[in-house]
Every structure is written in structure tokens, then in C-alpha cells.
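ok so for the tutorial part 2 we go from a plain amino acid sequence to predicted C-alpha cells. step 1 is just haveing the sequence, like this:
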Amino acid sequence: MLRIKTKSFHIKNQSDFSLEEMMSYTEDMEAGKFPESLDKFDYVMYDEQTYEDILESTYKVNSGYINIQQQIYTLLKATAPDTEELKRLKRQYLIALQEVDKSYRDKKVAMNKKKNNPDNTKFQYQRQNNANKTKQKEILEKLKGKRGLMFLGLIVFVMLLVYILVVTDPNKKGASDVATKEEIYQQALLGEEEKAIDNFAKLDQETLTKKDKQIYAQLLAQKEEYDKAVKLSDAKFVEAYLISRDYYSALEEFNKKYPTNNGKFDLAIHQNKFSDAINYSQGIDKTNNRKKTTGKSVYRDRQFK
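step 2 — the prediction. this is what the C-alpha cells look like for a chain of 305 residues:
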């Protein structure tokens, strides 16, 4: 999934958004719905799966774009990669951007249809209501005789029995006790990390998807509960998350318990220890960012010698 992170643009104390969220926000900005907000902001689009930065730019209102997705697509399409690998990545992300745009448009159309067709919902309700009344009338007519009264008594007895069983069930959990995944995602987005973590813990862990586990692991990493985060995902994922947030002091502590060449390499780059970075570069996951920094490390190491 493609996401946007910003440094100068915040909504409800958040600076990390899904691309669809930022499409909606920037469309509102273009429409003048936030007259007191910033008219431009710097941002980075990154891949949520790898935490690899894809594109860095500035969005400015009234620059000829409908929203941020259109700007990113235009900028990325104009790039001229010099290797086959980069060309492949360019095609991959352009397709992903088109898919996000289609999904976003489809959702908007569906919402507009729902808003513009209240009569259809009203008609369905009236039809169902009339059917219920007809059924109730038939039941009442049947209950007038002796057999009907016996049947009514049986219904009351069964309802009472079910009520007693439900109330006295020690394993019963109310529907409100467990939040849905959508509610938990919203809590995480709004900065309610504690609530989100507690509610993730209440879910059946076997039902968690890879994405669920990654979100859960991110929340735990924010609270420095690294052991739990690593169990949900792995050390490399937690490292990538810490690096994406520039939490280098946290990464240094994390790397003491869960050392990997990825973490050692990124720390060495951050600390300008270029010869160390070169030594660790043999065993790292070579993302585009790390390929670039490896080349810079070799160049700078030669300068210092």
C-alpha cells in the first residue's frame, strides 16, 4: 500500500496517511474548505510493505492538480530511470497509483449514489414494514384459538429459557467488548495507540492477516514493546519502521538485542561511519535507498582516507 508522510502538515496530530486519505484532504484544500491551513507542504510517498521512500516533493494548492495522486503520477511518469530495475519499479508504482485512483473514485461514486437516492431506501423500508405488518396480522389471527394460546405460552417459555442461559453464561462477551478491525485501524490513525493495542490483543490472533500484524507491530514498537512486535512480524520489519520514523536512538537500543546487518548498516550511515557501513553492506536487504547510500559510503570513505 502507498502511504504519505509529512513533516509540516498535521491533521489530528497525525503526519502519516494513506494515499486515499491525502487525496481527499488535498481535494478539499483545492476546493478552499481549509482557508486557514497551509497552502503547501513537503511530503514523501513510501511503500508501506518495505518502508522504502519512492518520491519526495512539495504539494502546493492551485498548481493545476486535482489532488496529490495526480501530482505524484505526473512527476513519476516524467522520470527517466537509467536501469531496468528502476524502470520495472516505475511501471509497478504507476500501476499502483492508477489502482488507488480507481478505488478512490469508485468509493466516491458509491457514496454519492447513496446520498442522492434516499427515496430508494425509504421505499425498501416501507415495503419491508408492510410485509412485517401482514405477517404480524396472520400470527395474531392464529393465536386467537386454544392452540394459538398454547403456542404463545411455548414461545414465552423458550424466550425465558434463552434469556436465563445468556445471562448466566460465564463465557459470554458482549458485542461491544470486542472492537472490529476497522475500528482498531481508526483508533491507530487517530493516535489512540493504547486503545488500538488493547483491542488488537482481544482479537483471535489466528484471524490476523499479515497487514493486521504489521499495524499491530508498529503500535507495539511505538510503545517500545519490541519483543511482542518481533513475534508478530520480525526484527527487520521493526527496524524498517524505526528507520522510517528517524528513531535512531531507539534503533540503536533495539539493535543490541536484535542485531542484523540492516540495522547496523543504517546506524553506521546515520553516524557517518562509512567504513563500517561498507563492511555491513554485504549482508543487507538492498533497497533503492540502501543502494544509493552504499555508493555514497564508498565515495566518502575514499575521501577520508
